[in-house]
Write a structure and sequence with these properties.
The complex is a heterodimer.
Chain A: H1 6-11, H2 15-53, H3 58-69, H4 74-97, H5 105-126, H6 129-146, H7 149-158, H8 162-182, H9 215-232, H10 234-244, H11 246-251, H12 256-283, H13 294-304, H14 312-333, H15 339-361, H16 370-374, H17 384-392
Helix pairs in contact in A: 2-3, 2-15, 3-14, 4-9, 4-12, 4-13, 4-14, 5-6, 5-8, 5-12, 6-12, 7-8, 7-12, 9-10, 9-12, 13-14, 13-15
Chain B: H1 7-36, H2 44-62, H3 65-89, H4 94-117, E1 130-131, H5 141-146, E2 147-148, H6 150-168, H7 170-180, H8 182-187, H9 192-219, H10 230-240, H11 245-267, H12 274-292
Antiparallel strand pairs in B: 1-2
Chain lengths: ~400, ~300
């Protein structure tokens, strides 16, 4: 216990300087890489042990993952998978930076996906293709954004815990998506509950020379835009101030309520875009009870990238390979694909452990902003200023 | 619509509500223990699903409902050990660890289920019920309330016990102090870490027991992801009940009824989309949060690791 004194937590707010003081730029870079990669490696090793216990050869499994996820033409599948993953990751980064736990990504994603799949078949036939895609992307983004409004308002005005509200809205969103798919958007010509399938030439065009649709470029562009918005604009600065310390944010005149709602909005917007990219680029339709739960798997990588929209790109690329290759590899050996979920959970657990060791040895930067830890504090209490203070000095009870 | 209030329908509604409410009740009471001691347990969903799996497997192979319940509690304890070590002892982030436990629980149970049974889902037989003399003969509410598995009564008694425990025992007061003002508890010579460890341990056991009940009595079968967000519902129930066991119990049974309303409506011959029905409890939670959200209460030291001597 004594190795986690609260004042070390406090200093983690100004981490960049501290790491610089200690070991110089090179040392800092190495520290950062170690702290980012070790959890992933440890998780792969632990996953391998689990495979051994289940009677599979881990080396064969992982090489099969590599073969199905990256070799030959398989990398294109992985690149396509990157589009939704990256957009969701960037959306989560905005929210997490503002100290908001938007855990409603599944509902936001699926509801957008359902509405897009329902509208797309008629839109792409009635309008010029480019315009149709533009409208569909805008609609998808708006649907995702609108689905965050209730949690955003509750958080902004009543300070209600958004972990709970976003999760509840997520379940409602998933249910509503099913109703839409089985009801108004059902393709009447088939017996299965699904929407009308887009014809191949009516889907997002490919990047010339590949089979990768341009949604991937949209995702990469979004990551760059968000990076600049966060690091170069007043909006980004305000979000970071809010994330670090809500009371300070109010003291410097930031409209906290507005900012909470805006951050939620953009977070949901990007998650909605993820749905559009995935549906229009890869699937072309949506089936009832389809829920890829991309968001669940993205969370550890968002933290490992330290909420940086550019750094998260290689992590997402890695996971895209693991996910496309892993889906096929698990099917090959007859395991449920949920094995990948175990790997993700292991990465998260090892991440927190490395975090602990790192804090102990003053390694590099923390995964979580101090404010993020505070996101929890509390529904129904008005003194969020006092709560923020408690975040800096973990033991000091807000009273 | 006319037969909605038919006796059989109401009986089925109450009985199903109680059976669906007990896992929520156990998990939410567990969450109350954990939260009042200052540990936010977001991994409760993972503990429930692990408990559901271990409980089902034990009951399936040993043909004993009660050993199954024990197995469920054991599974929950196994999952919460991770939380105790990482969050209570080492003071790591409770939200991240909670999410990790949930993901791990869902993934590992699905993998193990697949490795063990493939794509078949073996079922358990009906579980024994205990009738309370005389009372179970009351029309309408009798069979629902007084002719249930013994664990149902024990669960409700436990909520009453917990009220007394929080209010009137030393250990209960220590536990609340760990969540309200841990430094005061420390100054009084009681270990905050130990208090919270025991609290989280009992949470794991209760959540696992709830999961076990869900698999063994409620469904009679284990399917991957079968908890479907009930762990999160338990957290909400605990928040809305302000950590008070009686209110938590009542809210659990209410949510249980909204979970079981599908079957009752089918009995009544009303066809409503099951998706809509499945959304009801979550809509209910949102409405409750919008109306009562400002009055929900969480202990001041919740989710903050305790560090002796920190400012």
């Amino acid at each position: 216990m004594s190795t986690v004194p609260g004042n070390e937590l406090l200093t983690e707010v100004e981490v960049p300087n501290r790491a610089g003081d200690r070991s110089g730029a090179v040392g800092k870079a190495i520290d950062t890489v170690i702290r980012s990669l070790v959890p992933v490696l440890l998780a792969l090793v632990a996953g391998g042990v689990l495979l051994l216990i289940l009677g599979h050869n881990p080396f064969a499994f992982y090489s099969s993952v590599w073969e199905h996820g990256a070799q030959n033409k398989a990398w294109q599948e992985s690149a396509k998978r990157m589009a939704p993953l990256l957009l969701i990751a960037v959306g989560l980064i905005i929210a997490f930076r503002a100290n908001i736990w938007n855990l409603g990504y599944n509902g936001q994603f699926l509801l957008s996906a359902a509405i897009i799949s329902g509208l797309a078949p008629s839109l792409v036939n009635d309008l010029p293709l480019g315009l149709a895609f533009l409208i569909l992307f805008v609609v998808a983004g708006l649907v995702g954004a609108i689905w965050t409004i209730v949690p955003a308002l509750l958080k902004a005005f009543y300070d209600t815990n958004e972990i709970i509200t976003t999760l509840m809205m997520s379940f409602i969103g998933v249910g509503l998506a099913q109703i839409l798919i089985k009801g108004p958007f059902q393709d009447p010509s088939v017996n299965i509950a699904q929407t009308k399938v887009l014809e191949l030439d009516k889907m997002l065009p490919h990047i010339p020379g590949t089979k990768v649709h341009i949604g991937v470029l949209v995702a990469l562009a979004a990551a760059v835009v968000v990076y600049f918005a966060i690091s170069r604009t007043s909006f980004g600065l305000k979000v970071d101030v809010l994330g670090a310390n809500p009371r300070a944010a109010r003291h410097v005149g930031i409209q906290v309520k507005q900012l909470i709602i805006t951050s939620f909005f953009f977070s949901g917007l990007l998650i909605g875009l993820a749905a559009a990219a995935d549906i229009l680029g890869v699937w072309g339709y949506i089936r009832a009870n389809w829920n890829p739960a991309y968001g669940d798997t993205v969370i550890p990588f968002v933290f490992l990238a330290r909420l940086n929209p550019l750094v998260v790109i290689p992590f997402i690329a890695f996971f895209a390979v693991l996910s496309t290759g892993g889906t096929l590899a698990t099917q090959e050996v007859g395991l449920p694909t949920d094995f990948l979920l175990v790997l993700v959970a292991l990465i998260l657990l090892f991440m927190t452990v490395i975090e602990f060791l790192g804090r102990r040895r003053s390694l590099g930067q923390s995964y979580l902003t101090n404010g993020l830890r505070e996101a929890l504090r509390l529904p129904g209490r008005k003194k969020d200023g006092a709560a923020a203070e408690a975040g800096e000095t973990p033991k000091k009870v807000a009273r | 619509m006319s037969n909605l209030f038919h006796q059989d329908v109401l009986t089925a509604l109450i009985s199903g509500g109680v059976i669906a409410g007990i896992p929520l009740l156990l998990a939410a009471c567990g969450e109350a223990i954990s939260e009042r001691s200052g540990v936010l347990n977001l991994g409760i969903e993972g503990m429930m699903i692990l408990g559901a799996y271990t409980g089902f497997v034990v009951a399936y192979y040993l043909h004993s409902t009660w050993l199954g319940f024990l197995g469920g509690a054991g599974g929950g304890i196994l999952a919460c050990l991770v939380m105790i070590v990482l969050c209570v002892w080492l003071g790591l982030d409770q939200i991240v660890v909670g999410i990790a436990i949930t993901l791990a629980g869902e993934g590992i149970t699905s993998v193990l289920q697949g490795a063990q049974f493939g794509t078949t889902y073996p079922r358990l037989g009906a579980t024994p019920t205990t009738s309370i003399p005389l009372l179970h003969k009351i029309p309408v509410i009798g069979p629902g309330l007084f002719e249930q598995n013994l664990l149902v009564y024990l669960g409700i008694l436990f909520a009453l016990f917990l009220t007394w425990f929080f209010r009137a025992t030393n250990v209960g007061l220590n536990l609340r102090a760990a969540g309200e003002k841990p430094e005061a508890l420390d100054a009084a010579g009681v270990s905050v870490v130990a208090t919270r460890s025991w609290a989280v341990l009992s949470t794991g056991a209760l959540a696992g027991l709830g999961g076990g009940f869900l698999a063994i009595v409620g469904a009679g079968v284990f399917t991957p992801f079968m908890t479907q967000g009930q762990g999160y519902m338990a957290i909400v129930i605990c928040m809305l009940g302000r950590g008070k066991p009686i209110w938590v119990a009542l809210a659990s049974l209410l949510f249980g009824i909204s979970l079981s309303i599908t079957t009752a409506l089918q009995l009544a011959g009303i066809e409503i989309s099951t998706d809509l029905i499945n959304m009801l409890p979550f809509i209910a939670v949102m409405v409750a949060l919008v109306i009562f959200g400002r009055r929900s209460y969480l202990p001041p030291a919740l989710a903050l690791p305790y560090v002796r001597g920190a400012r």
